[in-house]
Write a structure and sequence with these properties.
mainly beta, four-stranded antiparallel β-sheet, 128 residues, seven-stranded mixed β-sheet
């Protein structure tokens, strides 16, 4: 059984930083695309960032570009999302997801439907 467990969320002031982690277990995830999504209250879940199986390919939502960095440590089966210069509009539940069918990023790596497994999420709250 595949499990994705997010951690690292919390309350931070605007301008601050957080690093989210997503630990995978139950199956080797070294060669697959991993993504981060978020859902703010009253809004649909949206794409944040994705990373290829090797870690060499990365893609970001416009809102995350230049402030967030996705990375992975395949030896630890862990994906990270470093978030800097956080804004109140970044407040959301952040979800980690795994696309077991893809090793490389594709044009649809920002689509929820591509992802097969999801974590339960971690809350990020940014105060103004």
């Amino acid at each position: 059984q595949v499990q994705l467990v997010e951690s690292g969320g919390g309350l931070v002031q605007a301008g601050g930083s957080l690093r989210l982690s997503c630990a995978a277990s139950g199956r080797s995830f070294r060669s697959i695309v991993m993504g981060w999504f978020r859902q703010a209250p009253g809004k649909e879940r949206e794409f944040v960032a994705a990373i290829s199986g090797s870690g060499s390919g990365k893609t970001y939502a416009r809102s995350a570009k230049d402030r967030f960095t996705i990375s992975r440590d395949n030896a630890k089966n862990t994906v990270y999302l470093q978030m800097n210069n956080l804004k109140p509009e970044d407040t959301a539940v952040y979800y980690c997801a795994a696309d077991w069918t893809q090793k490389s990023l594709s044009l649809s790596s920002d689509e929820e439907e591509r992802y097969d497994y999801w974590g339960r999420g971690t809350q990020v709250t940014v105060s103004s």
